[in-house]
Amino acid sequence: MNNQSLTDLKDLTQDRLVDFVESLGQPAFRGRQILAWIYRPDIVDFSQMTDLAKDFRATLAKHARMSRFTDPVIETSRDGAVKFGFRLEDSLVIESVLIPEEDRNTLCVSSQVGCAMGCSFCLTGTMGFSRNLRPAEIVNQVCGVRERMAAEKQGRLTNLVFMGMGEPLANLDNLLAALSILTEQRGLDFSSRRITVSTCGLVPQMLELGKKTDVNLAVSLHAADDRTRSRLMPVNKKYPLAVLIAA
């Protein structure tokens, strides 16, 4: 069986993971047990999940997988920021940027390969849009950088900002799933107060995000009048400043 045809458990929120194990004839609590294992950096194989029965571990290996990013291309800038280039399973490449500061370590996370928003000042926008990232591909950026920091004894990752490649709210469903995993205590256990989602101003999705999460929201304005903003950011033609501010 092609490995990519297996269910990637890192795509699943806790509720969906419970549904998955129940589809395999297991009780719901097994899903919560698995979630507590898969985001430990030393766990790469189901055989390591020692509180699961051996036959169930074998069943998991037949039906599921745990994707991870390995061997990123790493570049360090003069100001100390560290860029990670992660190659996806379809050979596309995304970037995450670690910004170390005295009192925090912030990771800038990507949500899409490319971007369709067409903002004139954004380099990613010149790439065009390829596809949305799956929840696992969003979460694995955090896992990959966290593991690298631990190996290099560089402290811990404290803050996440969705300001990397892509418009996060144009990939809302996968973003919400990733945020659920990132903030779940059995998952990566980030405080929602330490997560910021940046948007160019997709108003309906902004409202939906506010209903379903309590992460921080940052809106990129770049201009104080509609004429200038529409020239810089085409999204302003659909959601002008008055609509954006009212939201």
Description:
The chain is of the alpha/beta class and 247 residues long. The protein has two domains: 63 residues, DNA polymerase, domain 1, CATH 1.10.150.530; 174 residues, TIM Barrel (Alpha-Beta Barrel), CATH 3.20.20. 34% of the residues lie in helices and 19% in strands. It is built from eight helices and eleven strands. The strands form three sheets. The chain has a seven-stranded mixed sheet with strand order 3-4-5-6-9-10-11, with helices on one face. It has a two-stranded parallel sheet with strand order 1-2. β10, α6 and β11 form a beta-alpha-beta unit. α1 packs across α2 and α4 packs parallel to α5. The termini are far apart.
Radius of gyration: 19 Å
Q: How many strand elements?
A: 11
Residue runs with pLDDT of under 50 for 5 or more positions: none
CATH topology tier name of the largest domain: TIM Barrel
Give the distance, in angstroms, between the N- and C-terminal Cα atoms: 48 Å
The chain-level structural class is: alpha/beta
Cofactor: [4Fe-4S] cluster
EC number: 2.1.1.192
GO biological process, one term: tRNA methylation
Keywords: 4Fe-4S, Iron, Iron-sulfur, Metal-binding, Methyltransferase, rRNA processing, S-adenosyl-L-methionine, Transferase
